[in-house]
Batch of 4 targets.
Target 1
Amino acid sequence: MGFIILIVLGGIIGWLASIVMRIDDVQGILLSAGVGIFSTIAAGLVTSSGSLIGGISGISLVLSFLGAIAVLAVFHYFRRNSAH
């Protein structure tokens, strides 16, 4: 059950990160949700000493949000530069 919660929270965090970054173009919600899920799982692993399921805490949510913003910024940077 904890893994499903991480996936749902990751999707929400990725969506919120795309709103903060103002990236609502072609990439769509799937990439944003994927980035959020990845960053939520990574932050859960980092903050909980390797326990994936018990890794939901306030600090892990903040770290996953910041990670999602960083990954979206890097993705948007490379995507914008490859178009030129």
Note: The mean pLDDT is 76.
Target 2
Amino acid sequence: MKTLYTAEALASGEGRDGNARTRDGKLNVTLASPVELGGNGEGTNPEQLFAAGYAACFHSALRLVGRKERADLTDSAVAAKIHFGALPDGAGYGLAAELEIALPGVERKAAEALVAKAHQICPYSNATRGNITVDISILEVAA
């Protein structure tokens, strides 16, 4: 891979209950385990950050593909859900992802083709492929 950009971040404190910040200072967040995992929920958590990053990255890939295909991506959106859970047999913890796509200006068949192409070029999709389950749903398309 030819590196085009490198993001740098530091997590400190108690891991999920601490602080994360980027070297350039543009992101500086308090981390807190969610209530569902026994935390106080008074900060963000790694899964939320991953969800935001995956949604933004996939939407960017989708818009790139859409421009090449001359598709109307007005009001398009990508929502990401990142699931955290215990692996079978107590082998640690794992993640799964869901992407929900809205392409209100695109017919269903064209939307499916655009989403498939975006899934092939999105860096987050490439990083997760074969490592975690990623379910993709197209929720909204042109009538």
Note: The longest strand covers residues 93-103.
Target 3
Amino acid sequence: MKLSARNVLKGKVKKVVSGMVNSEIVIELSGGTEIISIITKTSAENLNLKEGSEAYAVIKASNVMIAID
């Protein structure tokens, strides 16, 4: 797999919540941090995402906002 995105985080699928159109995918990284993504249900099915399977969270953003309290 070759990607232009620089932020590729490998983890395991912790949870898949499928709706009528979209699915919520929770990926747990090695340190316990969770990344949550909403993708189409069709994409989740095509990727065969199941709890316990390995997956990558690929983050490509031209803007990252930072906030403080």
Note: The radius of gyration is 13 Å.
Target 4
Amino acid sequence: MELLDENIAILGAGNLGIAIAEGIVEEGLKKADQVYLTRRNLKHVAHLADQGFLTVEDNKLAVESSGYIFLCVQPKQLASLIEQINPVLTEKHVLVSVITGVSIDEIKGLLKVDVPVVRAMPNTAIAIGESMTCIACNDSKELALTIQKVFNSLGQTLVIDEKLMQAATVLGASGIAFFMRYLRAATQGGIQMGFHSDEAQLIAVQTAKGAASLILENGNHPEVEIDKVTTPQGCTIAGLNEMEHQGLSSALIKGLMVSYDKIKNIK
């Protein structure tokens, strides 16, 4: 089954589901009228209906009309969702789950037919084609590569062992929020130094983008780029040392690990 020959259904069009839909259309993988979005209260996706997306409350209808089914609901809603769509699922469907903390085997255990299941964990930057998406599939490498092609058009991708999916969720998906908090703090510091808030935010955001781009383009370890900025007795090393004295790196690592411990217990 070729992806471009099939409609896509996104079951549970919350923030992430909407981001996936917008990214798929923005990158030209699908037209809006080839993407079904389901939600209990359609007023929350009325603006997407105005853009041509097929918004419906009926999950079964969306599945019957599509080939690739993206599961974007909360973990506690999964069993009920699968119960709804089981009668219309066939072996020709492909399920792509972005549900946090739910394994492929757990999903297959709810199915009445043998449907291929892929796990994918993008982040909300998928809406602008800049996601980091990790993908796991136990059915076939070919299927994993097919789904990877979808997300390749929406940012960077990495096929990983499923056992690393929870860690990928924390580092890549939750990581968006962690970096946003840094940007907020940097903006506040810029304001304190004398910039207007919009000026401080622009400087902080573009600097962060530049720093990330240097690593992506050059493949260097971050410390290599840090060494290019720090000079003996300079202001940069003074600031870095103070941040480390205040626990910058350890706080980040501890935050990641707390999130990781939390996700391992989500059911």
Note: Residues 165-193 form the longest helix (29 residues).
